[in-house]
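FAQ

Q: What does a record look like?
A: Structure on top, sequence underneath. For example:
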């Protein structure tokens, strides 16, 4: 049962879970969420059809009906869940993982995420206990559901005339292939724009630098103003500027103020960032009147938090962007529509995307560094104790690991939920100061706890 994680069910198919697991998940979801109908979508992975068939069999054997979207992006499932009032939904996907992985993202009413703490743990317990799954006397029915006309209509108000900019797009052979040509037409320069669940060109994870190299080359070749790359299930999106430089996803949270405040005139909006976000994000937004909230990493935490604070938008370092306008959920398509209209507006002002990002970025940032170490808690505590003894923090956060802020720098150290890794990120006013702090953290983790830098 190694596929059950904090945010979803995910692992190598037929190793970490199989079609029997999928059947049982389907069987137990109607009871768990009080649903007489479950919405189901799937990505393009080669194992997704088999998982789909087993999941649907479990749902219908439990006596519940299925509304089947067929091939869909994950945000399409969120949209349909909330827009049509489903009490339960499942998207079959492993998001950005390699082709041999698969999984299930479960949502409840209003597209709120179901994670280990609020439902998946109960299903895992029922499966491990061997709870029976007798077929109901009256099986549920399956109906096909086509949402695309409503989905495009919903997105229409966010579209802008982009004819003044050149766009390069990498669809990663994933689920953005379903909508990109329809939404953006033939003007962008596309690569890897046919659906292929083997992901033959690169793994569908834009956070890994080598997976963005083809897009960077395309931006340079076509002299594009911006490059766009989606992950496998299109819930995440990332950007490359006109100089073929990768844009740090957390800085895009600040960039989006040009739309929400500059164009729509939002007054004192609440904005959500996560614990790894650059200090520059809040420093850029707060003078505009934004109330910036910091919270834990992952959709299972971010989506409910944005709803709780009634935030207007938010984002994560991993390229998830959440919107009140999208049922407080994340959407790669909506995020890209907003960023592209910003780039179009910048060009009308005689500005480039790199110039706009330079106005936000104020620090040297390490990016997330992974250390493989068995005693994660011990190593994490030792790093914090060392730096606190050296200098008194100006701010301290103790959720999702620790974030300690000092006048000239800050760091976050957090344990992986699923692997023997500590994830360390720091930011400083100079490259030299940042390098010094990384070296000291590494020395503690490696020398005292036998860790290795991954």
């Amino acid at each position: 049962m190694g596929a059950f994680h904090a945010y979803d069910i995910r692992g190598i198919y037929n190793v970490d879970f199989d079609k029997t697991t999928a059947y049982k998940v389907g069987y137990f979801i109607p009871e768990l969420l009080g649903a007489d109908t479950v919405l189901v979508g799937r990505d393009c992975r080669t194992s997704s059809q088999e998982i789909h068939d087993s999941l649907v069999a479990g749902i219908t054997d439990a006596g519940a009906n299925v509304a089947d979207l067929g091939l869909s992006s994950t945000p399409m499932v969120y949209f349909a869940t909330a827009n049509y009032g489903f009490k339960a939904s499942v998207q079959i996907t492993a998001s950005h993982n390699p082709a041999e992985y698969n999984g299930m993202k479960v949502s409840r009413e209003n597209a709120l995420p179901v994670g280990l703490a609020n439902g998946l743990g109960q299903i895992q317990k029922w499966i491990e206990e061997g709870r029976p799954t007798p077929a109901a006397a009256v099986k549920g029915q399956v109906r096909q559901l086509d949402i695309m006309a409503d989905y495009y209509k919903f997105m229409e108000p966010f579209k802008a005339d982009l004819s003044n900019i050149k766009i390069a797009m990498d669809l990663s052979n994933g689920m953005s292939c379903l909508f990109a040509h329809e939404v953006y037409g033939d003007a962008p320069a596309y690569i890897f724009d046919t659906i292929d669940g083997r992901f033959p060109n690169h793994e569908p994870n834009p956070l890994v630098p080598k997976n963005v190299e083809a897009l960077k080359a395309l931006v340079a070749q076509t002299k594009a103003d911006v490059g766009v790359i989606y992950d496998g299930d299109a819930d995440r999106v990332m950007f490359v500027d006109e100089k073929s430089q990768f844009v740090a996803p957390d800085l895009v949270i600040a960039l989006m103020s040009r739309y929400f405040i500059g164009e729509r005139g939002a007054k004192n909006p609440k904005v959500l960032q996560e614990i790894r976000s650059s200090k520059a994000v809040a420093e850029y937004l707060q003078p505009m009147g934004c109330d910036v909230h910091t919270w834990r990493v992952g959709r299972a935490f971010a989506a409910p938090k944005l709803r709780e604070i009634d935030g207007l938008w938010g984002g994560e370092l991993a390229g998830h962007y959440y919107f009140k306008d999208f049922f407080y959920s994340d959407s790669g398509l909506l995020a890209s529509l907003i960023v592209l209209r910003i780039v179009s507006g910048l060009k009308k002002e005689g500005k480039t995307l790199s110039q706009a990002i330079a106005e936000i970025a104020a620090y040297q940032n390490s990016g997330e560094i992974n250390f493989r170490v068995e005693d994660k808690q011990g190593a994490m505590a030792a790093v914090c104790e060392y730096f606190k003894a050296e200098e008194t923090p100006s701010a301290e956060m103790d959720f999702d690991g620790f974030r300690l802020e000092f006048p000239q720098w800050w760091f976050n150290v957090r344990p992986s939920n699923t692997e023997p890794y500590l994830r360390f990120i720091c930011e400083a006013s100079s490259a030299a100061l940042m390098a010094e702090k990384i070296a000291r953290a590494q020395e503690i983790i490696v020398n005292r706890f036998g860790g290795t830098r991954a």
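Q: Is there anything notable about this one?
A: The mean pLDDT is 96.
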